Amino acid sequence: MYTLDEAHVAVGFGKFQRFVLIYAGLGSILEAMEVIILSFIGESVKSKWNLSSTQESLMTTVVFAGMLIGAYSWGLLEYMYSFVLPGMGLLSVALMTSGAGVSSAFSPNYIVLAILHFLVGVGLGGGPVYTSWFLEFVPVPNRCVWTVVFSTFWTVGTVIEASLGWVSSSLPYPPICNLIHVLVEKCNYTLFYCNRSLKT
């Protein structure tokens, strides 16, 4: 008869553990992207709605306040209801974070955006649920190594988000460069050039 940890060691790290790693890793990537986007939107929201510096910083503060509540509640929710609905905590974290994040893009005003950012923070507070869920399936002697491997998903998420910001800001440039030969010169320059060539 095995204990749970001995059974994990006997089974090893196989296909199922790889699936759990990818699933939980995707959740970690998405959470990292949601956190990084905060640094991009603060200044644009400030200029769009003429916010004060205090109001701008409150946008980030409400996210961390939500994370404080979420960090406590998601673990409890996962513990209480995972026997009834397996994966309930993971699904709830994903739905809360993505639902509030997408909804915040359509915020009509500052108050609604702050409330939705708070809800994003509540969802982000559930990030450790992914980590603990994944590590429960990993053999005990390998948990340190797989914790480091799992943490790279957060890094991947931050790199993807920064790259998307860079790509979206540079998207207009390739068409501009490729269409340069189609453009005509300004009328004043053409008129000046024609007059000059006629005089010589």
UniProtKB/TrEMBL annotation:
Residues 20-200 form the Major facilitator superfamily (MFS) profile domain. Gene3D superfamilies: MFS general substrate transporter like domains. One of its GO terms (cellular component) is membrane. It is a multi-pass membrane protein. Keywords: Membrane, Transmembrane, Transmembrane helix, Transport. One of its GO terms (molecular function) is transmembrane transporter activity. Belongs to the major facilitator superfamily. Phosphate:H(+) symporter (TC 2.A.1.9) family. This is Organic cation/carnitine transporter 7-like. It comes from Heracleum sosnowskyi.
